[in-house]
Amino acid sequence: MTEDLSPAERYAASRTRAAEQATALFPFREMYEFELDPFQIEACEVLEDGRGVLVAAPTGSGKTIVGEFAVHLALQQGRKCFYTTPIKALSNQKYADLVNRYGADKVGLLTGDNSVNSEAPVVVMTTEVLRNMLYAGSQSLRGLGYVVMDEVHYLSDRFRGAVWEEVIIHLPESVTLVSLSATVSNAEEFGDWLDTVRGDTAVIVSEERPVPLWQHVMAGRRMYDLFEEESDHGGRGTGRREVNPDLVRLARTENQKSYNPRDRRRGKMVREADRERERRSRSRIWTPGRPEVIERLDAEGLLPAITFIFSRAGCEAAVQQCLYAGLRLNDDASRARVREIVEERTAAIPTEDLNVLGYYEWLEGLERGIAAHHAGMLPTFKEVVEELFVRGLVKAVFATETLALGINMPARSVVLEKLVKWNGEQHADITPGEYTQLTGRAGRRGIDVEGHAVVLWQRAMDPAALAGLAGTRTYPLRSSFKPSYNMAVNLVEQFGRHRSRELLETSFAQFQADRSVVGISRQVQKNETGLEGYREGMTCHLGDFEEYARLRRELKDRETDLAKQGAAQRRSAAAVSLERLKPGDIIHVPTGKFAGLALVLDPGIPAGRTAGHRGFDHHDGPRPLVLTAERQVKRLASMDFPVPVEPLERMRIPKSFNPRSPQSRRDLASALRTKAGHIVPERHRKQRSAAADDREIARLRADLRAHPCHGCSEREDHARWAERYHRLLRDTRQLERRIEGRTNTIARTFDRIVALLTELDYLREDDVTPHGRRLARLYGELDLLASECLRDGVWEGLSPAELAACASALVYESRQSDDAVAPKVPGGPAKAALGEMVRIWGRLDALEEDFKIHQAEGVGQREPDLGFAWSAYQWASGLGLDEVLRESEMPAGDFVRWTKQVIDVLGQIAAAAPADGGTVAKNARKAVDAVLRGVVAYSSVG
User: Fold this and answer.
1) Sign of the alpha-carbon torsion through 138, 139, 142, 148
2) Model confidence over 501-531: pLDDT tens digits?
3) Which of 102, 330, 467, 815 could form a disulfide with 334 if both were Cys (CB 3.0 to 4.6 A apart)?
C-alpha cells in the first residue's frame, strides 16, 4: 500500500528495492518459481558478503540452493566453482541439474571414471578427486573462487571421512567454502572449527522441515499415530510430543500375553506357522505383510512410498511377494510409458546380458509400479528405478539404507520394517541420526502437504523408545580423521615435516579432542582440592600415616596376588586333568548344575589352537561331553571343575548308544549307577595357603606393627580417609593420562607413520625419496602395500589379466569377513604374485606392530582380500558376463562396483610404475582397456 506511505517512506522503500536489485541474489531468486526460505536467503547473503558458510538443515529442505548460488556467483565474477559430492551418483545427478540450468559448455564432471569438460568454470566432482588435485598441485585450481561441499557430514564416515578434512585444511585461503550438512547437534562446534581453519564462517541452522512429517505405527489392520493429535507432528513448533496412549495400551496388552513355545499338540511341538496363526486369532495386532502394507498405503493415498529393508535379498523378495500377490499400481498408459523409458535406457545392453541380469523379471515389476533399489543392482537399473520413481511411474520401492545417502528420490511415505540392522559386526538398533536420515525422504516439497513415516509393528515394540528415536532429530558430527601413508608423503613433499605436523594439529579431530580435554582438566582441578581435604583427614600426630597406609595397601595387594596365583594354579591343574580324560571314564563332577556322577562320552579337547594374527583368541580349554546319572547329556565347562578331577572307574560305551534317544540314555545311566554308584569320591584336600609361608607378607606385617601409627587410637578413622585419598588419587592420575592421550594425538600418529616410512626409505627428514614420490600417487587403504609391490617387482611380467587379478586384492573386501572357504585364484604367475603380496603384507603388518600403528585405530594396512581375483581375471581375459557372475555368485551391481574400483587402482599403478624398462605401467593400461567393456563400460554410475 504505497499510497498510504509518506514521501520519505516511499523514497526509503525505493532505495531499499534498488539496493536489493543491485545484488547478485536478486536475479538468482528470479530463476526459481518459488520463494526462497529465510535460511536460504540468509546463507546466500553471507556468501555474497564474501564469507564462508555452513548450512545445517533437514533432508529435502533445499540446502543445495545455497550451493547453486555459489555457482551463480562464480560465473558472475569470472571465477571457478567446484561442486563436490560424496558419491558418483550424486555427482552425476548434480551435473545434469547444472547443465540444464547453465548449459553443457559451462559445466564439467570429474568422478574418477568419468571426465567431461574438466576445464569448465563449474566442475562437479567427488571429494576424493578434489583431494588428489590439491596434493598434485593441479593447474585446474587456478582461478578457483568457490568450493561447495555437499553432504559435508560425511566426514563422520570412518572409511572416507578423512578426505573431507584434508580438502578443508588444504584449500587455498582465497577460496570461499560452502558446507552443506544434514541437521547435526554440534553445528556450532563444527562452525567454530571452520572459523579457525578457513576464516570468517557463518553457521546457519534450520530445523524446520519444509513438509511436516507425521509418524505412524502400522499394526494389524490399523495405522496408529505415534504422537497425540495436539502434539508437534511436523516439527514446526516446540510443542510437547506425547506418545499416543492407545498405542501404549496396545503394546502393554500385547506384551502381557504369553505364548508358551513349549505348548504341545498331539505330542509334538507346535510349529512356528501354527503358533503365528494362533497368535493372530488371539490378538488384534500383527506385523502386516509387505503386499498388505503397500495395499493399505495405496488405499489411504500415501503412495509413492519407499520401504527400507536392511537386506538386499529382502528387497528382492519384497518385489516378488508383491508380484505374486497380484499388486498392480500402474494403469495401461503408465505401463506403456515405463516400457518405453526402460527400453530406451537399456538399449546399449546386449540381449544375452539382459537375460543374465534378470531384466525381464525386473521389467515386469517396473510395469506394475514396483521395484527394488540396492547396491547389488546394476547401476543402469538403479538409475532407471530412480528416474521412474521421480516421474511417478514407480510407486513402491523396496530399498536398503544406501538410498538415504543424498540421492534425490523423495516420496510421500517412508516405511521402516524394523528398527534393527546389521552394522557389519552385529545386529544393532538404528541410531536417531539414521532414523532422521531415512524418514527425511518422506514429503515432497511443492507436491505433498505432509509426509508420513510408518514403522511396522514388531513383537515387544516399545512405543516410548520409538518416540524417543523419532523425537531425537539431530546427531553429533564426529571426526574420523586419521593420517595415512599417502597423506604423510604428500604433506612432507609440500610442507616439510614440521609444518605438516602443525597442519594436522588443525584437523577437526584434534579440535574436538582438545575441547574434550577442557572438561577433564576442570575435573582434575576439583579432584586436587578434594585430595587436600582427604590429606588433612588422615593426618596422624604419631607419624606419617600416608606411609602406613601404603604398607597396608602393599600387604593387601600381595595377599590378593597370592590368592589369584593359587586360583590360577588350581584352574591349570584342573585343565590338565581334563585333558587326560578318555571316553568311558567315570568321574565325579565337583560343582555346578550337573554335580555328581558322570560318564565321559567325549573329552572335548580342541583339535588345535589357532595362533592367528593380532586380535585372535585362543580356545578356552577342554569341554567334556558327559552323561549324568540323571540321564542328561551335557557339555560341561571349565567352571564346573574348580579342582582337578580323576577317573573313579571305567566302563564301555556301547557302539549303539545314541545320545538323542531317551531309552539309550536311560539304559546307559542305569549301567553307570550300577557300576559306580557305591563309590565315594575322595575329597580334595585344601592346600596350605601360600600367604602363610610368604616372606614378603611376613616382612610387611612386621613393618606395620613397628610403625608409630599402628598404635594410634584413631587408626581406623585415619585409614578410611587414607583409602578415600588413594581412590581419588588413582582416579586423578587416570584423568591426567586421558588428557595426555588426547593432546597431540593426530600429530603423534603422524610421527609414528613418518618413522615407519623413514625406516622403509620413503622419507629422509624433509626429503621425499623416489620411493616416496611413487607412494604419493597411490591412494587407498593399501597404498603402502601397492608401493612395496612395485618396489619389489612383484607384478613384473604379469599379463594384463593377471595384473587385474592382483590389483583386485588391493580394493576388494568380502561382505562376510570370516569366509571359511579359501577363494579361487588364477594359477601360474598370478598365484605366485598374489602369494607374494600376502607375504609382503605380513612383513608390513609386523613392522606396524613395532611402530605401534594399529588397524583398530583406523591406521595401517588390512590384509589383501583375494576374493575377487578370479572374477577380475576372468573378466579381463574376455569371458562373458554370464560365466563370470555364475562362478562368482555375485550380484551384477557388486561386480560392476568392484570392477570400477579395480580400474581406478590400475590407473594409479600405471601412473606410479616406472615408465621405462618395466612391463607394469604398459600392462596396467592394457588391463584397464580389457576390463572397461560390456556392463562395466555402459554403467555410468560407479
Assistant:
1) negative
2) 888 888 888 888 777 776 777 787 788 888 8
3) 330
**Could you tell me the three cell numbers for 674?**
550300577
What H or E segment, with its residue span, contains residue 633? strand 633-635
Residue whose C-alpha cell reads 623416489 in the numeric block:
770
* Residues 847 and 614 sit within 8 Å (Cβ to Cβ): no
Interval 421-431: pLDDT, tens: 765 566 677 77
pLDDT tops 50 at residue 232:
no
Residue 397 has pLDDT above 60, yes or no: yes
Can you list the positions of beta strands (E) in 798-933?
A: none
Q: What are the CB-based long-range contacts (under 8 Å, 24+) for 513-522?
A: 513/742, 513/743, 513/745, 513/746, 514/742, 514/743, 515/189, 516/742, 517/739, 517/742, 517/743, 520/735, 520/738, 520/739, 520/742, 521/739
Give Cα 216 to chain centroid, integer Å.
Answer: 28
Amino acid at 538: M
- Tell whether the model's pLDDT for residue 473 goes beyond 70: no
The tens digit of pLDDT for each residue in 712-758 reads 888 888 888 888 888 888 888 888 777 776 666 788 888 899 999 99
Q: In what order do the strands lie in the sheet with 596-602?
A: 633-635, 625-628, 596-602, 585-589, 649-650
CB atoms inside a 10 Å sphere around CB 702:
10
324 phi, psi to nearest 5 deg: -65, -30
Q: What is the pLDDT of residues 850-874, one digit of tens each?
A: 898 887 667 788 889 998 999 999 9
The residues facing 179 across adjacent strands are 54, 149
% of the chain exceeding 90 in pLDDT: 23
Cβ within 8 Å of residue 268, ≥6 positions away: none
Residue 942 scores a pLDDT above 50: no
Higher pLDDT, 704 or 405: 704
> And the C-alpha cell for 330?
500402474
Taking the C-alpha atoms of residue 42 and residue 229, their distance in angstroms, rounded to an integer, is: 33
- Return d(Cα 640, Cα 595) in angstroms, integer: 8
Question: How many CB atoms are located within 10 Å of the residue 255 CB?
Answer: 12
User: Is the pLDDT score of 897 beyond 70?
Assistant: yes
pLDDT higher than 90, residue 349: no
pTM here is 0.69
Q: For the CA atoms of 761, 765, 768, 770, what is the dihedral angle to 10 degrees? A: -30
Cα 540–chain centre separation? 57
Dihedral-angle region of residue 458 (phi above 0 means left; psi in -120 to 50 means alpha; beta otherwise): beta
Q: How far is residue 254's CA from residue 242's CA, in Å, rounded to a whole number?
A: 21
At 210 the three-state DSSP class reads coil
| Local structure of residue 121 (DSSP, 8 states) | S
342, 363 contact by CB (below 8 A): yes
Cα–Cα distances in Å, from 895 out to 817, 890, 941? 17, 6, 13
What span, in angstroms and rounded, lies between the C-alpha atoms of 877 and 60? 45
pLDDT band at 351 (very low <50, low <70, confident <90, very high): confident
Closest CA to 696 of 557, 819, 816: 557
C-alpha angle with apex 658: 625 to 626, nearest 5 degrees? 15
Residue 265 is inside which H or E element, if any? strand 264-265
Helices 245-256 and 463-471: angle between axes, nearest 10 degrees: 140
Q: Which of 498-507, 664-673, 837-846 bottoms out in mean pLDDT, i.e. has the lowest?
A: 498-507
Give the long-range contacts of residues 516-519, CB within 8 A, separation 24 or more: 516/742, 517/739, 517/742, 517/743
Could you please report the per-residue DSSP string of 300-365?
A: TT--SEEEE-S-HHHHHHHHHHHHHTT---S-HHHHHHHHHHHHHHTTTS-HHHHHHTTHHHHHHH
The whole-angstrom separation of Cα 53 and Cα 152 is: 12
Q: State the Cα angle at 417 between 369 and 380, rounded to 5°.
A: 40
Helices (H), ranges, 506-645: 508-537, 545-579
